[in-house]
Design a protein that fits this description.
heterodimer, A: alpha+beta, Heat Shock Protein 90, 5-stranded mixed sheet, two-stranded antiparallel ribbon, 7 helices, 7 strands, 12% strand, elongated, B: alpha/beta, Transcription Regulator spoIIAA, 6-stranded mixed sheet, 3 helices, globular
Amino acid sequence: MSFNLFDAEEQVIERAQALEARLAALAPEVGAELTELVDGFKRSYREQRRLVRVSDRLQGQLAAANQEAERRRREAEDALARLREAQDVLVQQEKLASLGALVAGVAHEINTPVGIAVSCASHLADSTTRLTALVEKGELGRGDFNRYLATATDTTALILANCERAAQLINSFKQVAVDRASAERRSFDLRAYVQETLLSLQPNLKRGNHTVSVDCPPDLMVEGYPGALSQILTNLVMNSLTHGYGDGRAGCLRITVTQPDPETVCLTYADDGAGIPPGNLPHVFEPFFTTRRGEGGSGLGLHIVHNLAVGPLKGSITVESPPGQGAVFTLTFPRVVPE
Amino acid sequence: MASERMTIPATPRTPEIDFDFASGRLALRGESYPDDVATLFGPVVAALREHLAEPSDAPLHVDIELVYFNSSSAKVLMTIFQLLEEAARQGRPVTVDWYCDPDDETMREFGEDFSEDLEHVTFSVREAADRDP
């Protein structure tokens, strides 16, 4: 037996119609009035059926709309999660890219002393071969021997000096690169470390005839993450070279370190380049904010600077750009970064 | 004397109501899910009732063009249709055009449903595109 939602109403109608039939014989004078009442109830019953249908439809639509809204909310959340992942990947790539640039700088810088050492060694080898030949033929004269001694003295001195220079460069780069890659906590001399980092940027600085002055108290020992600091400086310098001096003029970069109190370090980085338009200032630390999209700018350089300043260094960074005076970044962080 | 014309502009939750009794054209257009169905439709139904109370054989045409309505509004529509049906039964020519979007099957079915009880009113379900400009 099938279920009838309006079973009760239909039974009432049946009973009313039966009553109508009985009353037609018993009390014909009330028949018409009763028929009117029964018709009124029947109409009301039909309206009720319609209203239930309307209501069911509306609730069905509402439920469908809710499901759709929920589905879209989930889609939006998924999209946001994917976007964040992509952002993390890009930040990571940007860090690797700047490490790559560091390695390229290192290679360029070491290339000069190594090149000199190689040509000196080669010249010494040639002279030795010639000397050996003269000895074997028994034709070695005093003059030949003295010339060889002079050559050997000169070339070995040059080889030694240039190899020492290369070793020294490698040592300082090694520290920067290891810090950059390992993110290990250690204690370091701030001034020496700033200078080592700048050394790795020399090829870029020299190419544009830019000069850097460092004004930092000696023996200022900082305990924290030198890799983060080195990365911050690298990104700031590269940012100045790209944006501040894009027109090719030689710049003057100033790094000034002060201690507002013994436990706080305040590093001010200033260039005298083109500066940052006031409209861009509030956005420079935002991820993917770039004025050079399509020209290779990822918009992540200063975002990484900001992340490193507030993250590993547990400090803060602000930017100012008074019209016509270049860009000034102020990095403040505890001398001993809390564990 | 019954009012000649009753117009209520549409709001996001209520339809445009234009009952032009003088020219015999009544219209409901838009969405209808008022906060208080009695406040909105009470005076409208009363005005219609009053107008229909005066015997007339002037034709009456009603356009209903609702894209959405709630259950209370549906009950009001049925009340209005019963008033019209009674007037038509007494001899007044009454036509109702129920407009719905071509792909709004629900609205079409509601229209067909509502016309079930109308014997004397000429009720047509039309697609919104057919409407006279």
